[in-house]
Design brief:
Blueprint lengths: L1 E3 L4 H4 L10 H10 L1 E5 L4 E3 L7 E13 L5 E7 L18 E4 L3 E7 H10 L12 H4 L2 H14 L10 H11 L5 H9 L2 H11 L13 H8 L1 H12 L9 H27 L5 H10 L4 H6 L5 H4 L2 H22 L4 H9 L13 H12 L16 H6 L12 H4 L1 H11 L3
Antiparallel strand pairs: 1-2, 2-7, 3-6, 4-5, 4-6, 4-7
Helix pairs in contact: 5-15, 6-7, 6-10, 7-9, 8-9, 8-10, 9-10, 10-12, 11-12, 11-17, 11-20, 12-17, 15-16, 16-17
Length: 418
């Protein structure tokens, strides 16, 4: 699938060999560029074939496979961090390109690029020769190995807790109702107790307390029950057999509950958002880090180097999170949350969505803290404008944390079972 791309010349100026072109040529190519999207495990092009395009990997993971069995992995991190080397400059293609995850490519007419290189090359430009094998650091090698494990199904992804799976299936079954859903939940006393606690909390409580699981399901409704059960059980996947990694898992869970609480509070202030769906989106926004952390002990250099581990998480958490939620059969709106959670400049034409809400929640979580300088100003992000937060009086200097601290703390307590 192709989409018209909004490309500026500065996005192209570091790409090989486009960096050899003058400004006029870059502007011409920016007008011709378009995005090309491919789903995970699809073939982008095959070895020894030809087509008219020069491509660059924008986001996602791509495997290049040569006919003799050689393999190389590439990872794109967005418009500002595209893979600089081109795909298709040499044709016929010397390798096949396989999408390991959902990928986005930027493409432009190859012949036009070659023509501009003939007539608009910068004077005395020296072409750099890059030896990928020699310049690739150990971190990149580990990134590629992790990706290969994912591609070959060697990196086991966690399963959604059984009670959550069964509840989600029952809610989607038109022949099931509150009694059937309540019966499933009653089989897990811990989940049943936590669901009743949520139903009787200030956010959902009625004039009379819900004194049974069935009453709690009726009060909450089937869809809200589905999201709450998923939310209170998903903590089970934030575990590792390694004490060191388990500490990171605990930190990840605590951070996720804060983002979930903030997203819930924001959703209550905005039209068109379901607080329970926002809660789930906040909890799952960083779910891709879970399988990466869980398997880090298989890579001693990774597990023993906190900085390298953090870079690995940053590189893969979004795509792995999307893969995991797709495996769990979540809707595309929720899958988009981990894929875009760190994309502060995310741009789209539709109304604000859950991914925008979670972006804002993350920036609100660091407002007026020492960490704030590492992030963009909330008011300068597209998500802030799309959600219309200015009209609600929410800004960098007036974070929602200040006015809803107790409400946020209550949501966190419910998620942590306190």
């Amino acid at each position: 699938m192709t989409k018209i791309a909004t490309v500026t010349p500065d996005m192209l100026e570091d790409l090989i060999p486009l960096r050899e072109l003058d400004q006029e040529a870059l502007e011409a190519l920016a007008d011709l560029a378009e995005y090309e999207d491919h789903p995970a495990r699809s073939v982008v092009f095959r070895a020894n074939s030809e087509d008219p395009w020069l491509r660059y990997l924008v986001s996602g993971s791509l495997v290049l496979a040569t006919p003799d069995g050689g393999r190389e992995s590439l990872v794109g991190m967005g418009d500002s961090a595209m893979v600089t080397r081109p795909l298709g400059l040499e044709q016929p293609f010397p390798h096949s390109a396989l999408a390991g995850t959902d990928v986005r490519l930027l493409r432009m007419p190859r012949e036009r690029v070659l023509d501009l290189l003939d007539h608009h090359r910068l004077p005395q430009y020296q072409v750099d020769v890059v030896d990928a094998e020699n310049t690739e650091d150990s971190g990149s090698q580990l990134f590629y190995q992790l990706f290969e494990d994912l591609m070959e199904d060697r990196l086991t992804l966690p399963s959604m807790p059984d009670v959550a799976v069964r509840v989600r299936q029952a809610v989607s079954d038109p022949d099931s109702g509150a009694p059937e859903v309540a019966k499933i939940i009653q089989a897990d006393p811990v989940v049943a107790a936590r669901l009743m606690k949520v139903a009787n909390s200030p956010a959902f409580g009625g004039a009379q307390p819900a004194d049974s699981v069935a009453a709690a399901v009726v009060r909450l409704g089937l869809k809200v029950t589905r999201e709450i059960v998923t939310a209170v059980t998903v903590k089970e996947v934030f575990k590792s057999s390694s004490p060191l990694i388990n500490q990171r898992m605990t930190e990840l869970w605590m951070r996720s509950t804060l983002i979930a609480a903030l997203a819930t509070v924001l959703a209550r202030k905005l039209k068109g958002f379901s607080p329970d769906r926002a809660l789930l989106a906040g909890l799952l926004h960083d779910i891709g880090a879970v399988p990466l952390l869980a398997h880090a002990h298989h890579y001693p250099e990774l597990a023993g180097n906190p900085n390298l581990l953090s870079r690995t998480l940053d590189a893969y958490r979004g795509q792995v999170g999307g893969m995991l939620l797709r495996r769990w059969n979540f809707p595309e709106e929720v899958i988009a949350v981990p894929l875009n959670a760190g994309n502060w400049e995310r741009s789209h034409e539709e109304a604000g969505d859950l991914a925008d809400l979670v972006i804002v929640a993350q920036l609100q979580s660091v407002a007026e803290t020492a960490e704030a300088s590492r992030y963009p100003l909330l008011s300068e992000t597209p998500a802030y404008r799309r959600l219309g937060l200015d009209a609600l009086g929410i800004s960098d200097s007036t974070p929602v944390m200040d006015e809803a601290r107790e409400e946020i703390a209550e949501v966190q307590r419910l998620l942590m079972g306190k």
